[in-house]
User: Fold this.
Amino acid sequence: MQDVWVEKYRPKKLSEVIGQKAIVERLSAYTRTRSMPHMLFAGPAGSGKTTCAIALARELFGEHWRDSLIELNASDERGIDIVRGKIKDFARAASIGGTDFKVIFLDEADSLTADAQAALRRTMERYTQTCRFILSCNYSSKIIEPIQSRCAVFRFRPLSEDDVKTYLKNIASQEHVHVTDDGLDAICELAAGDLRKATNILQVASSLGKKVDQDVVFESTESIRPSEIQELLKTALSGNFTAARSRLDGIIIRHGLSGEDIVQGIHRAVFDLPVSEDAKIVLIDRVGEAEFRMVSGSSDRIQLEALLAHFANEGRKMK
Assistant:
């Protein structure tokens, strides 16, 4: 069975983590002093939060790091019972192997209920001598203030294209996969700073052959090409609503995308349209309204056609 590249090439040391230099420097200082506070890792998916937590544990506890680290996913176990039971039992137990403390890594902590967070606050305070908490979340605003005030907050940023490309090239060289420049550009566009997603896209695309180019990337991920969205919008802006609606039908049938996927593609494409800034402001405002209505439960198809109709109407006004 083929290895999952996300885990196979996950950095084992803090020095190997890419794209988060300032955070790595702060964490490395904790490993040198053999001391650390409770920590809150906040940032988008695939930016290195879990990797940094595990790498920190490896450097703190050495080869027996698994004995001093417990990793829990709060999205699976997010009630107050898990805090009062599993977490509290691990926190109150003495550390083994000569270490001063243990680490509880709570992934997706923003999924914890309000009651669970309130119980966690007291547990963090009571067992500081034997245990440190690392909380990971996408949105720090969903973590209650008493917990945030007890933690050193680390804010992770989406990785830059250069960092993602460097990482993917390293994987490709070790797996003997040829990745073209346009293939890397396509992966970076689809991943949008999510290194985990970029790695998975590369692995899926490489399964179709040893050469990964733009065509292979879009084919393997069944993603819509930016050029298709551009043609759709240009057709609508020309005032030909019927033709634009036909193109929309083709995109939906060919790719099987949801309405939100298409709206997100339209949002990215609007900025590259050959129209004035005033026109872009009007169009983006309408795109946001369509996306909100879809999320609220409106029909994807009706909202997409209404959006194209608005583009067609704006195109006629510009003429």
About this structure: The first strand starts at residue 38 and ends at 42. The mean pLDDT is 86. Residues 5-155 form a domain with the Rossmann fold fold (CATH 3.40.50.300). The chain is about 60% helix and 10% strand.
